[in-house]
Amino acid sequence: QVQLVESGGGLVQPGGSLRLSCAAPENIFSTYVMAWYRLAPGNQRELVAAITSGGTTNYQGSGKGRFTISKDATKNVVYLEMSSLAPEDTALYYCNADGRPWTPNVYWGQGTLVTVSS
């Protein structure tokens, strides 16, 4: 069973910053598209940002311009740097690894909670 291990969630004040981390097995990290999704109360799960094995990034939704996805190949870790956080960013943030179309495999982390509140 592939494990994606997230960390870095917590409580932050509006306007603050937070960095999420997702550790993945090397074979997954180096070949899959890695992404961050979030699930907020009352909403559907949405893509926040994705990064390909080659480093191409894609951002969706309200995180554009405030969030940055990156990865460290020496540690097999994907990061989501979040700044100018607002209460609307409060959500469970999930790490995702997608092997399609080359493999049918899609993996999810357990989620890390980000709460933006004063």
Brief descriptors of the model:
118 residues; 4-stranded antiparallel β-sheet; single chain; 7-stranded mixed β-sheet
Please write the string of helix (H) and strand (E) elements: EEEHEEEEEEEE
Compute the separation of the termini in Å: 39 Å
Gyration radius over CA: 14 Å
Low-confidence stretches: none
Largest pleated sheet:
7 strands, mixed
Structural class of the secondary elements?
A: mainly beta
Beta fraction of the residues? over 45%
**Average pLDDT, all residues:** 95
Total of helices: 1
| Secondary structure: helix percent | under 10%
Would you count the extended β strands for me? 11
| Approximate shape | globular
Task: Annotate the secondary structure layout.
Elements: E1 5-7, E2 10-12, E3 18-23, H1 26-29, E4 33-39, E5 46-51, E6 57-59, E7 67-72, E8 77-82, E9 91-98, E10 106-108, E11 112-116
Parallel strand pairs: 2-11
Antiparallel strand pairs: 1-3, 3-8, 4-5, 4-9, 5-6, 7-8, 9-10, 9-11
Structural commentary:
This protein has about 120 residues and is mainly β. Helices cover about 5% and strands about 45% of the residues. It has one helix and eleven strands. Strands 2, 4, 5, 6, 9, 10 and 11 form a seven-stranded mixed beta sheet that branches. A four-stranded antiparallel beta sheet has the order 1-3-8-7, with no helix packed on it. A hairpin with a 6-residue loop joins strand 4 (about 35-40) and strand 5 (about 45-50). The protein is globular, with a radius of gyration of 14 Å. The termini are far apart.
